[in-house]
UniProtKB/TrEMBL annotation:
Pfam families: Antitox_RHH. InterPro entries: Antitox_RHH, Ribbon_hlx_hlx. This is Ribbon-helix-helix domain-containing protein. One of its GO terms (biological process) is regulation of DNA-templated transcription. Residues 11-47 form the Antitoxin-like ribbon-helix-helix domain. Signal peptide: none annotated.
Amino acid sequence: MSNLSKRSTIYFEPTIHQALKMRAASTQVSVSELVDEAVRLLMREDQEDLQAISERVAEEEISYEALLNDLKTRGKI
């Protein structure tokens, strides 16, 4: 195994677990490494989302009703 050092018990639906084991075998990567990478990708996406929110904090807010009215005025709906 790579340098992974903490253990957790994770429960999968049987078909998901089977697919995960098959992916691990076909790529010669452990199930643990696949799960670790998936979690890292998820956290990276969360960080990118939080950064985007932070960058847009000063944007003017518009209500849904106002948005619909604007789209109608511009002939979009």
